[in-house]
Amino acid sequence: MNHAEPLVATLVVGLALAFALGFAARLLRLPPLIGYIAAGIAVGPHTPGFIADAGVTAALAEIGVALLLFAVGLHFRARDLMAVWRIALPGALAQIALGTALGAAVGTLAFDLGLAASMIFGLALAISSTAVSTRALEERGRLGGEAGRIALGWLVVQDLVVVLALVLLPALAHTGQDVSLPAALATTGLQLLAFLAAMAIGGRVLLPQLLARVAATGSRELFTLAVIVIALGTAFGSSALFGVSPALGAFFAGVLLGESPLGHQAAADTVPLQRVFVALFFVSVGGLVDPAAMLAMPWTSVATVLAVLLGTGGAILALLLALRVPLPAAATVAGAMAQIGEFSLLLAQLGITAGLLPDATRGPLLVAVTLTILVTPLMQTLTDRLALWLEGTRRVLAWQKRRGQARLSKPPPQGLEGHAILVGHGRVGRIVAQALQCHGQPYVVIEAHHATAEALRLAGIPVVWGDASRSEVLLAARPETARIIVLAMPEAAGCRRVLDLARAANPAIMAAARAHDDEEAAFLEREQGMGLVVMGEREIALGMADFAMNRLGVPPAEAMLTIETLRTGH
Q1: Where do the TM regions start and end (predicted)?
Q2: What is the pTM of this model?
Q3: In the chain, how many domains are there?
Q4: Last residue within a domain, chosen from 365, 386, 407
Q5: Residues 452, 350: Cα–Cα separation, whole Å
Q6: CA-to-CA distance for 401 and 379, rounded, in angstroms?
Q7: What is the DSSP string of 292-304?
Q8: d(Cα 536, Cα 359) in Å, to the nearest integer?
Q9: Residues 218, 221, 223, 226: is their CA dihedral positive or negative?
């Protein structure tokens, strides 16, 4: 029992404070990340009161990092980058180089860092927060437009650079310990090649097959457990066998599973656990912060914040304009991405753990994370107003006219446009699918039963396996471009949840659902966007009534009007 006390106390107090302060931050319209960091400061050794066990917190944080990178891998799609690669690839690399150089200069002047340490510090100041950037664009309704596509491609390039940095950190850490930098890089390169070969040969085949066999058992609990074991097991195995960072191993496991038909449900199942441990990661970062040390370096903190705003926000705006992106879209992307977040803290934390960065860098970096996230709405407003002002000047208009505008590549077609989504392929969904097939209408099936989904896939029918009430699964069927969703599900509450998710992605989507009794039917008919609710017994009765009226000589038009009146109740 004594051995469990530090773990239990750290989990309970850390999570309780993270929830309370994260909730308070959300009420203030701030990202919960700010509350998590504040919770870490509260339970850290530099503030009075309860002090969390540092070893336990660090171990939980490492799990959080692995799950975070696993989720990034699950959601990584090459097509997101290919659609805007002419802009995102050169632009993001140039911005990272400029931001890293500016941040390295601040690190060198403030902390007298060496070349490797200053580059790590600079890189931490050049990587935008994916969560904050996408949410900022989504709240303004611009995530699905031109600016959103550019930002997503840009963020993908930044994530890949972070992954590369995670590979190189161990090599840099061993430099100077009787090992030269070229030798350390060569050793790391060989380890990475061995790891990639093992993942390509074994992981690409074995991991999806293992998960498919578990899914075939029909046990959702076993499937969730298998996903977590694969994520953390690959992270641990890559470190133990190949010397690769656990985060990198988890990332590649996510990439491989994300390419399989099981990836959407795997992503949905890991989200809750990932959120819990990522919150603990930020709590652990806050626990290492000394508030007094932060206040003791005000000018360094100010310089760090300015390096982020100029090296990320300013560089993105200038580079997008140089790449002939229209001014409004360039300003939107720059305003949303002018901040740093989770990956910056991850890089710095690993750099400090490896002995490459001094502890003193943590304070100004944390100030930069907090302030730049806080001023993101202000930066969006400022960049929008700057764009309006610049567009009104004759010189800018003439310059844009001479240069023209860049043309974005269209995202690769996915065969799902103006289609129907069938949730469930049982007795009801199967007949609807056959009707659509007879008339050549496009549709995709979301099926929770794995064996049924595999049979549909083998028959060449577009299918997504998983629980449609989970957003990651439903979004795989592209509701944003669908015309109708048919909810052939057994329960009304599940239909309502799926309909809410579908209408969030596409407010114009029409829906049809089934019900088992009058109460369920009335419940569903109250939902906005519900075009038809079918109840089995009622439809049987209406069919028999229609037959009886026709046999008794009631005119077909009058019989149809009576049936519709009985169906709708008025």
Answers
A1: 48-72, 84-107, 113-132, 152-173, 179-201, 222-241, 276-296, 302-323
A2: 0.67
A3: 2
A4: 386
A5: 45
A6: 27
A7: HHHHT-HHHHHHH
A8: 67
A9: negative
